[in-house]
Amino acid sequence: MSETTTDTRSSGPFIAAIDQGTTSSRCIVFDRDGRIVSVDQKEHEQIFPRPGWVEHDAAEIWDNVQEVVSGALDKAGITAEDIKALGITNQRETTLLWEKATGRPVHNAIVWQDTRTDALCRELGRNVGQDRFRRETGLPLASYFAGPKIRWLLDNVEGLRERAERGEILFGTMDSWVIWNLTGGPDGGVHVTDVTNASRTLLMNLHTLQWDERILHSMDIPAAVLPEIRSSAEVYGTAGGKLAGVPVASALGDQQAALFGQTCFSEGEAKSTYGTGTFLLMNTGERAVNSYHGLITTVGYRIGDDKPVYALEGSIAVTGSLVQWMRDQMGLIKSAAEIETLASSVQDNGGAYFVPAFSGLFAPYWRSDARGVIAGLTRYVTRAHIARAVLEATAWQTREIVDAMQKDSQVELTALKVDGGMTSNNLLMQTISDVIDAPVVRPMVAETTCLGAAYAAGLAVGFWPDTDALRANWRRAAEWTPRMDAAVRDREYKNWLKAVERTMGWIEEEQ
Amino acid sequence: MPGPIQSLERAAAILRLLAGGERRLGLSDVASTLGLAKGTAHGILRTLQQEGFVEQDPASGRYQLGAELLRLGNSYLDVHELRARALVWTDDLARSSGESVYLGVLHQHGVLIVHHVFRPDDSRQVLEVGAMHPLHSSALGKVLAAYDPVAHSEALEAERTAFTDRTVTDAGEFEKVLQLTRARGWGSDLEETWEGVASVAAPVHDRRRMPVGAVGVTGAVERVCLDGEIRPGLVAAVRDAARAVSRDLGATRF
C-alpha cells in the first residue's frame, strides 16, 4: 500500500461532468483517480399538461445547468483553468425543438415518459407493426423514442413545419441542447449529438451511424433540423461562460454513461442500475446483436474514430417504485430501507409472488394488457412474506432480462456490476446473485453515470491514456456470490413464471 | 416476588388517561378521575414531566402527553436505514484509507456488522455483513461500550475472552480503556482480537445524540500502525466519516 493512506484531499487538474437528468441537473468534479471532489444539484419542474403527458421547460434546465456548474466549481474551490475537460450525460430521448437564431424553445421539451405519441407510433407501424424500423434502428416503434416526438411537434405547433424546412429550427435531445448552449448558443453554438443519444431517436441507422433517409421520409421529418452525429468521446467545441476555454469533450445517454463508468469495456460485461426502474445493459462488442427476446439494440459508446461498441438493453419498469408503493400506498413500511428489515424477519416468501406489472409487462414480454398480481396467497402469508416477494420481484425480473441477453448474444454473463440507490439493500443484492447464479459486484463510486461522462471526456483530451487506465481506477466495494441451491432456484423460477402468466390478458380492450 | 409498584401503576393510569378522551386535563380532573389525592397526582405528573412523558400547557396549566413518549415509539433506528445513509461516506473512507471499512451496531452482547466495504485492491474478499465481532476487544465494540450504556454493561458482564496476548480482560483495565476511548473520541484494537490485525473506530450518533453504531477501518498492523500506534491520518479519516454519517442522521455538529 502506498503512503497516500492519510491523504483525503485531492489536487488538480480535474474533469467535470454534467448529468442532465429527468428530475434534476447535476455537476460533479472528479480527480484523476475518479474520486468525487464536489457535487452540486438542482431539481427542475415536472410539467403534466394532461394525463400521460410529461414536459420540461428547457430554458429552466439550461439555467440550472449553469447554476450547478458554478456551484460545483465553487464548492471545490477551483476555476475553469483547473478543469481539463467537460463531459455531458443526459436523460435519453427527451425531445426539444428550438429557434436557431434566438435559442428560444418553440415548445416545452417532451419527456421520454410522455405517451402522447402512442397512436402516432401505431399509425407509423402501418401493416408491419412496432418492428417496422427494428432492423435499421434496433428499436421497436414506441412512444419513448425521439423521432415520433419530433413529428408530433411538427404537426402540432403552428407554422413549425414550414420553419423547420426553411432551416430555422434545430432539434436535439438534452445533450445537444446543453452542448449548443455551452458552445455559444445562437452565437456559433455547435449543433451535434453523440451516437448513443442518436441511437434512441428511431432515426439513426445502427450500422452506418448516420440518419436513415428512408425512415426520415417515412416519418416526414426534414433533415435540416437534425444535429450532426459524432462519437461519444471527442472535442465538440469550447465552452464559454463560467467554463470559458474548457473543451466540451463527451456526450453519452445516462445508461450508456453508467456502462462506461462501470468500465464494462469487454464483450459480455454488463451493468444494472437499480433505481425507480432498472436498466440493464450488456456490452456486445463490435456486433449489433438483433434481439429476438424483447430487448433493445443500442450503441454502447464510440470513442473518437474507434469502431463503435454496441449493447443490448433491457429495462424493468417497476423496481424501487414498488418499494415506494409499499411505503406510500400500502403503508407497510415507514422508510424504503425498512423493506429489508421486514423481509429479513422471515426465511422465505411463504409461497407468495408479487408481479408488479402496474402498467403492463416490459422486457422480455411486452404485454400492455398485463396488470399486477400477488399470487400464492394463503392464511400463512404475512406482510413480511409480501416484503420478501417485493424484493424477489426485482431479482426475478433481472433474471428474465439476463436470460434474454444470453440467448440473444450467445455470451454468458460472468458477473453483474450494479449501481443505483437500491444497492444499499444487502438482501436484494444477495437475492439477485442467488437467482441469476452469478456474482453481483458493487463498485466503490456510486455515481457511475457522471463518472462515465467524465471518463469519456478525459479520454478525449488525453487526461487518461486509455480504457485500461480507467479500469485500474475501478474498485470493488462489495461482492455477493450465489448461495441458493440449484433445485430451490429452479422451483422458485418456475413459480415466478406461473405468477407472471397470471398477469396477462387482464385488460381486455387492448389489441 | 414483590407485588407491583403502586406509584408506577398510578403513573401508567395517568398516561392512559391523557392518551384517551380529552387531550388536555387539569390536575383536579386527573386526581378525581383516578381517585387520587391531588398531592399524589401532582407528584406523579411532575415526575413524568421531568422525564418528558408529560407536558404542561403554560397558559392553562393543563397536562398533555409529552414528545418523549412519541420518540420512545419511534426511537429504534433501522440498521438498513443506517447502512443506506452511511454508504457514500464508508465508500469514501475505504478509498482514502486503502483499508476495509465496517459499520457495526450492538446486537446480542456483540457487534453486528451491518455494512462492509472491501479494501480497494483487487484481492479476493468476502462480504462480512451479518458477522459478529466481540464487544470487549474490537475497536467497534470498545466504541459502542464506551458510548452506549447498554453495551457498557453487557461488555462488563460478559466473559472477556483473551483472543491474543494483548486482549484486555481485567474489568478495571477494561474500564480504563473505555475512559480513554471516551476522552479521545475514538477506539482502537491493536492485535487484541486477531493477530496481525489492527483497527480504529469512532461513534455514530443520531439526531438525539444517541450512539447508534460505530464505523471503523481494519487492516494489517504494518499498514494501519506507525511505531505501535494507529496512524494519526487514519484516525482523522475515520472520525470525519463517523461525523459525516451522524450529520446525515440529523445529529448536530459537535
TrEMBL record, chain B:
Chain ranges of the IclR-ED domain: 68-251
InterPro entries, A to Z: GAF-like_dom_sf, HTH_MetabolicPath_Reg, Tscrpt_reg_IclR_C, Tscrpt_reg_IclR_N, WH-like_DNA-bd_sf, WH_DNA-bd_sf
Stored SMART domains: HTH_ICLR
Span of domain HTH iclR-type: 5-67
Coiled coil: none
Keywords: DNA-binding, Transcription, Transcription regulation
Pfam families in UniProt: HTH_IclR, IclR_C
Signal peptide, first to last residue: none
Gene3D superfamilies from the UniProt entry: 3.30.450.40, Winged helix-like DNA-binding domain superfamily/Winged helix DNA-binding domain
Name assigned to this protein: IclR family transcriptional regulator
Organism: Streptomyces thermolineatus
